[in-house]
Amino acid sequence: SLNGKYKVQRHGLFVLCTSGDSVKVYSTRTEEWLHSLQGHTNQVTGIALNPANHLQVYSCSADGTVKLWDFIDGILIKTFIIGYPLFAIYVSEKHEGIVFLHIGFQLVAVHLPKSAEQEVEAKELSAVSSHISPNPSCTAFGREGQYIAFARNLQLNVYFFRKQKTYSFSLKATDKKGAKNAFTCIACHPTDDCIATGHEDGKIRLWRNFIHKKEYTYSTQHWHHNAVNTLCFTPEGTNLLSGGIESVLVQWQYGTGNRKEFLPRLGGSILHVSASSDGQLFCTSHSDNKITVIESSFKVCGVIQGLVKDAVLTDLMIDPRSKALVLNGKPGHLQFYSLLRDKHLYNLDIVQQEYIYEAGLDQFEVVKAAFDIKGYWLATVEERGQKSSDLEFFLKLWSYDERTQSFVLNTTITAAHTDRIISMCFSSSEETTMLVTIAEDGQFKAWCQGVDADTQQDQNFWSCDFVGSYHNLKPTNCSFSADSSLLAVSFQEVITIWSPDTWELLTTLCQPPGVIRDLCFGRLSCSKYLISTTTRNLLCCWNLLTCALEWSTSVEVSKLQSDPLSENVAAFSYQSKHTDLFVFKPNEPRPLFTHKNVCSEKIHRAVFVPREEPLNNCDESSQWLNRSQLYFLTQNMLVIDDSVAVTPFYLLLGKHRQQQQKLNTPSHQAADRPQQPQGSVTITELLHTPAHVLPPASVLCSMFVSSLLISNTGEMESSEQEMNSEKEEEDSEGEMEACDSQQELRAQGSVDEVTPKLSKAQERELKRVRKTDFSWMAGLIDSKP
């Protein structure tokens, strides 16, 4: 998964966490991803182990359903339709057959009906409370399900199921020392009548005697300097675990006053903590999309790292060596993430300073990065300081070390420019390596490996080779041609073309109005073209042989991205509160592919990812994807646009899912492409069945071939008439009915297409074809190799 906030559930051998519209299952021993529980059509918002069977798990989703899974084999057991968006789920051993759901601001008890059907509607709902916090961590069951505690703002509520009464306890907004008392999380002791609550000021309160409303007491413990994000009692109740922004897991010994242990430097802020049912393992989930597996001895024994989803300041890049996706990772780092394996590979420490997890501190961040074409060099820019007068930045060059299989720092340039670096790019040539940077100081600089003045041999360091400018204008972007013979640098409304060999200004292009935003040279057969976008919502194509404008069109392009393996260029256009995708070749202004309403956000980051093997037999509208896949970044997730042709095997196995589920958009297919029929429920279940219980492959093959054959039910009567006379066939009323029946059947097999009426001659020819004996197919199907 490339998105979604992690939640952790407990089981001795497995870690379960939500990830977008699925639940991922990991091994606590190997840290490997085992499989995903897929079936929801919207964000999964909560998971809870089935108290009656700890090999099963409930999941709830914003799609309004609760699903019960066998998470060992990854099989969906049952779906309960609630009909409302769900935000959290809670279960209790004392309430068998009942789940408690967070719907809006209500906590609702739902009786799960017992039914043999796999999908059933749950109609029996009863409200427990209408004052629930939107934070799921502020609700918990206590004393084996005898009561449920929930906190909101400054009030703690305890609902007793036997009494059917709610007791409320309030705090003042601030105490005498000005501390903030709002509740942030809650946990109940498994055996004692004790409720632990976390607060905004970092305090933890232990509430007792709340069964007698007027005699309640609480004690206070304090270590966290900021809000407590999560609390969890161990299964025996001997310890209380807490975590927050400090990224330190604190273990408080229950009933011993203020005795505690610490496990520091776990990464991002701790968002959630969970304990295994035997108390031997703890898991923490973090703001940097990471799960840490911890032994009860307070020793880290495993880390499961997802795609870090903090602010992305760099472009999306592909490492030419590992083919990994590279972008901002944890603070001060670049992360290398394998899209093929859906696995985090490693972090590269760029800033090389300890990051302090405290709001308001001005710390160095990686803002720019670029690879050379061979993946031997990596350039990075790190900076801090919101105001130009306080700006600090460094340009660093990293070389790839074959021995360590990672990048090592080669050169640090402390004064690369006098103002912020806007953009940079490496030359495309494999013979010589050159880096060009442009900055707000009005200059662009070319950097090369230094040459010793005496020996004229390359030295293992980088230095400035050329400084260029144009009429004191501020540069906006830069790009090398495919063969690196030309360098394009845009200055406000002017594009300048330079020769990197002589640094001669060859020509300028300045016809369309508007400041230049993106620059992109064509590839392969379109290498003579230069594409640009402007702030006046113009997409322009320049012919560099004639130095003339080849074509232009009025469209607001938020991101322009070229495919390094083909002539294709992708343009994301944001208008009317949604983004459209256009794919085109520079030599043809008409798009090859149009995808309306890709998402509702503006796209600023995108990248073409080369395939391991090119796809064959794609339909014409998907040819642009046969060598690469297009990934783009929205605010919440990394999305893949892979609108390839749907093959018969793809349909049979029902692997494809409607892309609006994947992209959260009403439509994914281009307007001129008919939707393909969905796979059957039977085949979907077959997909989720373990291999050792599947039928032989020959049976599956028979099913596949049968699915390709067009049903001719209702034509048996007319076939006898065909054998008599073609002339009678034309006037036969019964045959016309059969023809209508056939058209109905064909319409039922299509989703959006309307089958056109055939002429009588075409109908006659079609019936001749149907007379052909296809029984030889059955022999092939039944024959064994």
Automatic annotation (TrEMBL):
Using the record's annotation, list all stretches that form the WD repeat-containing protein 75 second beta-propeller domain.
316-637
Region (Disordered) spans which residues? 714-759
Q: Which InterPro entries match?
A: Beta-prop_WDR75_2nd, WD40/YVTN_repeat-like_dom_sf, WD40_repeat_dom_sf, WD40_rpt, WDR75
Name the source's superkingdom.
Eukaryota
GO molecular function terms listed in the Swiss-Prot or TrEMBL record: RNA binding
Acidic residues: bias regions: 727-738
Report the GO terms under cellular component: small-subunit processome
The entry's localization annotation reads: Nucleus, Nucleolus
**Gene3D superfamilies in alphabetical order:** YVTN repeat-like/Quinoprotein amine dehydrogenase
Q: Where are the WD repeats?
A: 37-79, 176-207, 221-262
Output the GO biological process annotations, alphabetical, semicolon-separated.
positive regulation of rRNA processing; positive regulation of transcription by RNA polymerase I; rRNA processing
Keyword annotations for this protein?
Nucleus, Repeat, Ribosome biogenesis, rRNA processing, Transcription, WD repeat
The protein in question is named WD repeat domain 75
User: Could you tell me which species this protein originates from?
Assistant: Cyprinus carpio (Common carp)
